[in-house]
Amino acid sequence: MSQYAATTEVSSERSRAEIERTLTRWRASGFMYGWDNDRALVGFVLNDRQVRFEITMPDREDKRFKRSNHKPPRPLTPTQSAAAYEQACRQLWRALSLVIKAKLEAIESGIATFENEFLAQLVLPDGRTVGDAVTPRILDGIDHSEMPSLLPEFETKAINA
Question: What predicted TM-score, i.e. pTM, was given to this entire model?
Fold first, then answer.
């Protein structure tokens, strides 16, 4: 499957500004952006809830930024390596913009609630997100328990038919 915005020319800065404009239209009462080493954060306050997205930025040392896709692979020049890295960053920011817009549209359309769409990114009083707090427990439960059928109602109807 192809990656969304894999060849985008939209800069990371423009995508971040687009996210901020989108949230402003939705009447967010706060917005923040920051980065540290290999991660970037976007946070906002909407519906009196703090939301935080953390994205892991690509590793500059990843082989995709060091060698070409040609057969046989050839080393990339420093300029080519930097360009490939920047392309990967632009793709991530475009994808994050899309995700936030899609979640807000789902809420506006009545497909989902704010809390359901942003559940994993909601910030708890201790500073962690709901996703950070519950994901390990959920995965442990799934890994160590028998899961129900994906469509249990259909199985019951088939047995009773």
Answer: 0.85
